[in-house]
Amino acid sequence: MTTTATGHSRAAARAADVWKVYGSGEAQVIALRGIDAEFRRGRFTAIMGPSGSGKSTLMHCLAGLDNVTRGTITIGDTTVTGLGDAGLTRLRRDKVGFVFQQFNLLPTLTAEENILLPLAIAGRKPDPTWFDTVIDTVGLRDRLHHRPAQLSGGQQQRVACARALVARPEVIFADEPTGNLDSHAGADVLGFLRNSVRDHGQTIVMVTHDPVAASYADRVVFLADGQIVHELTAPTPDTVLDTMKKLDNAATEAVA
Ligand code: ADP
User: Fold this and answer.
1) Which residue, 6, 39, 168, 213, shows the most beta carbons closer than 10 Å to its own?
2) In terms of Cα–Cα distance, which of 37, 46, 38, 31 is closest to 12?
């Protein structure tokens, strides 16, 4: 565990020996097998791995959306494992932001209302300077009064990014954020996410299967069969793709 001189943890999120078992008996699936991972503040981490390797489960457990079978999750200074329903609701409201593949905007609200909704629910007022910075960063100034149906997919995902950023959460979890976008709109969204890390110290953990998307991150964590099997720092699309191929070959040889 990395701790600063003040005792304040440098990890925005941490998993310590996390296991997740679904079902029991014949139907039992071990989705996570003793995951140890630290996600440092102000870093952009991508989680990759084949379908079924445990990426979504890990993200859901880290974000307090699913409970773990064993082990400990912390977000900032909060131990997530062991929180009751009220504590989890507060955690998700105050410390965590989400960007989903499907945007998850409310269709009857304008872009601005969607962006401010989590703060409104929490009874918090937006910091006007920060709100302006976020809107300019994601390039939505002239779209604030549009409803989602009047926006392109890329613009809708920018609204979702702004909604996550405006609350300045401890961590933003992004689940295949470019999965529904063409490559141009996807590159825009990934650029905003990376800039929010570089310029504003936001911490982001993103699940993706796309080597180009992963190359926007500072670090890539590779999962296979519920375990972390490899890590890359300063990834490029080529180094990510090479690693995916090597891991895939190793898995094929292990089965043969
Ligand atoms: P990934 O996101 O890498 O595709 P998941 O985390 O969705 O992987 O799934 C990991 C494993 O856990 C898979 O074998 C999947 O079938 C299983 N799993 C996920 N969610 C559930 C669930 N709610 N009930 C039973 N098994 C599940």
Assistant:
1) 213
2) 38
